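Example record

Each entry pairs one chain with its bound ligand, fe (ii) ion.
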Amino acid sequence: MTDALQMAKRTVKELLEAGLQVTPEALSTMLANPNLASLVISRIRDAGGALVLTEDDIKKIVEEGGAQKAASINTPSKEEEPKATPILELKPALTASEVDEEFEVVMDPTRVIGTSGTLDDFVNYFKDRYMRLSNLLLKRGDVKGAHKTSEVGKFKEARVIGIVKEISKVRSGSMTIELEDLDGTVSVLIPVTLADKARNLMLDQVVCVEGKKNGSYIVANNIIWPDIPFDHKPRRANDPVIAVFISDTHFGSKKFMEKPFVRFIEWLRGERGDEKIRALTKQVKYLVIGGDIVDGVGVYPDQEKELAVEELYTQYEVAASYLERIPDYVKIIAIPGGHDATRQALPQPAIPREYGEPLYEIGVEVLGDPAYFKIHGVEVLCFHGDSLNDVMATLSIDPHHPEKAMVELLRGRHLAPIYGSTPISPEPIDLLVIERVPDVFHCGHLHVNGQENYRGVVVINSGTFQDQTDYQRSMGLTPTPGRPYIINLKDFWVAQLDFTGD
Ligand SMILES: [Fe+2]
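Structure tokens for the complex follow.
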């Protein structure tokens, strides 16, 4: 048997074993590229999909594969040469100061929220969550014709969309869940064969379960999340402008890392780095801040001992005193986090002028949490990330990999799926449903950097500028301060900067 034939047989076997169907064109593309099948299978598995793969899907996976991880760039002191030669290519000449800003708010909760928080509000909130997420599910080709829980008895095979109300582990690795829709509930047995998929299930998520009826319950043979569609076409800017993403600056905290932040500002001013790095700086048009701008006051017991600045308004003055040194042509967009001066329940309105006046005065675009906006045509979903702790604890995700929890939020298309420990305000519209597919999904909150590319969405957690706190030390959490991400909005080249060294 020739090598080519052996290779072809191996590829077909791999695809069959993975349960994937492919179009003839997609198959010949894979046969022409010996290691492509393994990459495609692993991506589809990660994404939880079971699809008929087209040639376009494969092209997309290949493109994403090439842009999987951010380049790493040291930003040396004014005098020094770079510590390591960065993987940099000079982009077409562009000076951000000569390019008009293109900024559009798509959704800011500040303008829409308002609830009394009654029991009726909560009932209506969950109805709205169910309706919005089931509509997203029904857009998928493989969820058409779903049944209501009340209809399940009429069919041998059922497909039900519901909110996950209970999850119970039973013997031998299988589990049972209770699915609830607007009609009632149904019990679902998830066999051990679906255990890999089922371990991503979270309470209060809306999912579709397919399976066979057995008495009063369904034996599942598939679980489908709303997820990011494979055919999402990421939007790109026409100009190679750069957006910088930072989070959790915690101005006012004794642990605020002033030196790295000053280096960061100097970099934005074009005062650091060699020719290549300065050329990069000139392309910066946007700075996005993912919340916890200040450390706040009274956020946790005895916080005053940790504060360098004890007055909330003054903390924002300090923040503004640093940010105002950034060149005027860089648009700054900021959302709040749990330490900022606004309500804690999600969605959070923007920091009010009463406290955030210094930010408004220097022209910062102050939005709520979460916020959707477009910069140069690229849609960003910026969410502080309060729910990430819950997601990580529930799914046993290593807290040093926040991007994995962020991907789970995208898969379930909800920013705070588990009701309980993350405070949620029962708004008439569930603004935490990820109704729009963003091009960039940016979070902070965990103080740990992470980056991923999930079905064409750039997922970034931009870390912090605060040193390790005593609480984090006691929890064994090692933050990654001083390492913002940059994205070229035209070609989606992602890089991580490092301002920790002199
Ligand atoms: Fe924080």
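Residues 79-91 have pLDDT under 50 and may be disordered.
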